[in-house]
Amino acid sequence: MDQSLLTRYRVMAYTTAVLLIVLVFVGVPLQAAGHPGLATVLGTIHGFLYLIYLVVAFQLTRRLHIPVVRTLLVLLAGTVPFGAIIAERRLTSEYSRQTRQARRSSQGTAGTAPQEV
């Protein structure tokens, strides 16, 4: 499995999540109070980075053979505060599980000698 893809996904998940959390809990209240500057800037940055998150998350879910419905949930997680963090934890666990299984299966077949007939 590709560890760099997982790292890229994790960075994008946390970045998008933190920006969205700050946007929702700080930027929007400030905007409601008549100070739209922070919401405008963070909204633009989050929107741009969310597009990158979509690409990286899609690549990772395809690599892990995640079903389509779960893939869509992971992609939508970047639009829900704390959603991308939860999705990141679950995909990282899935990645670790699949990596352990692949390692076990390669060790199981690598050490066996050919059978005599």
Describe this structure in words.
The protein has 117 residues and is mostly helical. Helix 1 runs antiparallel to helix 2 and helix 1 packs antiparallel against helix 4. 20% of the residues are buried.
List the helices and strands and how they pair.
Layout: H1 3-32, H2 37-63, H3 68-76, H4 83-110
Helix pairs in contact: 1-2, 1-4, 3-4
Offer a quick outline of the entry:
The chain has 117 residues and is mainly alpha-helical.
Q: State Rg.
A: 20 Å
Number of domains: 1
| Mean of pLDDT | 91
Intertermini distance:
35 Å
List keywords for this structure.
elongated; 80% helix; 117 residues; mainly alpha
